[in-house]
Amino acid sequence: MDPELPEEAVGRRVSCGGERATVRYVGPVPPTEGVWLGVEWDDPERGRHDGVHGGVQYFTCSPGSGSFVRPQKVSFGLDFVSAVQQVYHTDTEEILTEDICFSSKRLEWGRLKVPSLHSSTSILLNRCDVNGAGEGGAIRRTTPNVQWLDVSRSLIGRWEDVAAIRVTRQKQAQ
């Protein structure tokens, strides 16, 4: 398997150009060289075929919802903690804001208090490329007080991955 592809890529959710898809095939598509991913798009208007190319059935999907893409064009996503750090950029109590100018008037905002991830009770990761819980215990260390979490429209494609995040959250309460 290609070193940049995760093991068991078939069945995994991916993001490509802002669109979501599920990997249905990994391998060659002659006469081209190299590895291709056969994907089934969430938006069936995005695809071009049903997994058949050159008369060969590489995978099965709804008519017109499949495409072949190169692995380097897709994102397999990030674990929960990496996504939190990417979205929230900081784990400090305050951040320096920039001066804002309106016409000839300048407003100096100074410092703005931002709750740290440790004290946050809500995390919004909707439309982020979250693909699972990640390293055991990392959620507990990073976001110990979260009670409300939004991972809608993420790359999580299995209930087991949702349960892994939830189980981690429950363990923190004990």
From TrEMBL:
Gene3D superfamilies, alphabetized: CAP Gly-rich-like domain
InterPro entries assigned: CAP-Gly_dom_sf (IPR036859), CAP-Gly_domain (IPR000938)
Pfam family, one: CAP_GLY
Keywords (A to Z) from UniProt: Chaperone, Cytoplasm, Leucine-rich repeat, Repeat
PROSITE patterns: CAP_GLY_2
Gene Ontology terms, MF aspect: microtubule plus-end binding
Top-level taxon: Eukaryota
One BP annotation, GO: cytoplasmic microtubule organization
Residue span, CAP-Gly domain: 27-70
GO cellular component, one term: microtubule plus-end
Compartments reported by the entry: Cytoplasm
Family to which the UniProt record says this protein belongs: Belongs to the TBCE family.
Name assigned to this protein: Tubulin-specific chaperone E
Species this protein is from: Knipowitschia caucasica (Caucasian dwarf goby)
Top-level taxonomy: Eukaryota, Metazoa, Chordata, Craniata, Vertebrata
